[in-house]
Amino acid sequence: MTSEKQIAANRRNSRRSTGPKTEAGKKKSSRNALKHGLLSTSFLLPSEDPKEFAEFAAAMRDELGPAGTFESFFVDQIISACWRLRRAALIEAGILSWEFLGFQSNRARRDAEKYVERSSPFESDDYFTTKITNKNAHEAALKAARRAKEERSAPNSMLGLAFMQACETGDSISQLLRYESAISRSLDRFVRALRDSQTAGDGTCVA
After folding, report:
1. If both were cysteines, with which of 4, 57, 73, 101 could 33 make a disulfide (CB 3.0 to 4.6 Å apart)?
2. What is the pLDDT of residue 125?
């Protein structure tokens, strides 16, 4: 069993550490972070980079310096909450991008229609002919509409769309704010718990 003195020594050593220096050391630290508890690839969305998350988790663990399984649990929760808050920011940007690009695409198509004249040689409107009054302007507007539609398919916009569809109501921004608030409260609780544990261990509080 690890003694209190050993735990305190481990904690002091972890705080003096500045993390792995070599590229090989950084990769090993990242792999260790991914293997640890919650911090696995199953935590990530398909659009998120496992390597980026592993490096983020390794840096957080190195900075927070948990000693033992108990403090490691709190650090895992802190890492999870911080990553989810980063994700929430991307979701917000995705929601706004999806809405804006949809508006932009519709407006460009309406602009294209301004350069189209339709006429029917018969009394019925079932058949009509069209004439483009300004081919360059018409094509430019259609090109802008296609570009906005393509940009709407970017991962960030699709993440926003996925969140919007997951919401029971159309007020996705309000839902997102509640989601962020809940994560922030959880983060605050686990940060306090980690500080209390580390203070109890050697009388020093992590900043």
Report:
1. 57
2. 59
pTM (two decimals): 0.64
Look at residues 126, 17, 139, 129 and name the one whose alpha carbon lies nearest to residue 67: 17
Sorted by where each begins, the domain ranges of the chain are 4-202
Helix (H, G, I), strand (E, B) or coil at 16: helix
Return the exposure string of 146-162: e unless at least 16 CB atoms fall within 10 Å of the residue's CB, then b.
eebeebbeeebbbbbbe
| CB-based contacts of 147, cutoff 8 Å, min separation 6 | none
> Tokens representing 17?
């550490």
Spatial separation of the C-alpha atoms in residues 139 and 109, rounded to whole Å = 10
* Spatial distance between the Cα atoms of 82 and 46, rounded to a whole number of angstroms: 18
Q: Please write the tens of the pLDDT for every residue from 45-87.
A: 888 898 999 999 999 999 999 988 899 999 999 999 999 999 9
